[in-house]
Amino acid sequence: MSCRALLLVNPHARQGQKGLSEAINYLKTLGFILIEESTEHPKQLYEVILRYQHQVDLVIVGGGDGTLNAAVDALVETQLPLGILPLGTANDLARTLKIPNSLNEACNIIAQGNLHRIDLGWVNGKHFFNVASLGLSVKITQLLTKEVKRRWGVFAYAATALQVIWSARPFSAEIVINGESVRVKTVQIAVGNGRYYGGGMAVADDAAIDDQRLDLYSLEIQHWWQIILLLPAMRQGRHIHWESVRSLQGQEIRLYTRKPRPINTDGEITTYTPAHFRVIPKAVAVLVPA
């Protein structure tokens, strides 16, 4: 039985152009009828998905987490299932869902048709898969150019983080969660829906993308070098057990700062504080390994 799929590929993704023809040919051999769209601007993906929603059975997105984030609002609106071809630098959503970086294996997973409904995070009207954050991660996002990511791959995150860390300055924030208000002085607040972000760091050691909760951590360190000590623990999500890290969980969070601060969702700056976060349970169906 053939399946009609809208294939959206970000040509600027780290492996976008190289992997595109290989993926197209293999998907066709697996029986897919493809409508291929390539856009220079990921923000156009919303309109493209809405345009084709009644002509296809699913949407396949080839790119990184930023490309997936650009498509997420349209996926929620149309309720079309999502197939993922990990063509980006970090591929954190694919990592969370255990989708391998091998394109042929990723295509096979889409063809197997094993659908799993996952939660989404939501902040100020914008959905996200992995993490929304402010502070250090925003500065890293601002410095991470396409050229740096294409040249250095996942190592670009570590190199840029080291650049940013030594100049880190704490800011004040108020966190309202589970009916309580907490005032903090922090260099970073991250609110996670999935498990991985930032090139393979874990939000929390027990975070999952279908646990119907948000995991918040706040880095409340005194000196920049303390972040260096934390980095190995952040790969496993064990940083939440450190004394200098505040860890909170809930389904709804509000965040206030003295002046508006940019918020990065899945690696793209999309909104500002004050921020209202929610988890949207089982919001999207994704094709995952059986």
Automatic annotation (TrEMBL):
NCBIfam families: PRK13057.1, YegS/Rv2252/BmrU family lipid kinase. Keywords: ATP-binding, Kinase, Lipid biosynthesis, Lipid metabolism, Nucleotide-binding, Phospholipid biosynthesis, Phospholipid metabolism, Transferase. This is Lipid kinase. Residues 1-127 form the DAGKc domain. InterPro entries: ATP-NAD_kinase_N, Diacylglycerol/lipid_kinase, Diacylglycerol_kinase_cat_dom, Lipid_Phosphate_FormReg, NAD/diacylglycerol_kinase_sf, YegS/DAGK_C. It comes from Nostoc paludosum FACHB-159. Signal peptide: none annotated. Pfam families: DAGK_cat, YegS_C. PANTHER family: SPHINGOSINE KINASE, SPHINGOSINE KINASE RELATED PROTEIN. Belongs to the diacylglycerol/lipid kinase family. Its cofactor is Mg(2+). SMART domains: DAGKc. GO terms for molecular function: kinase activity.
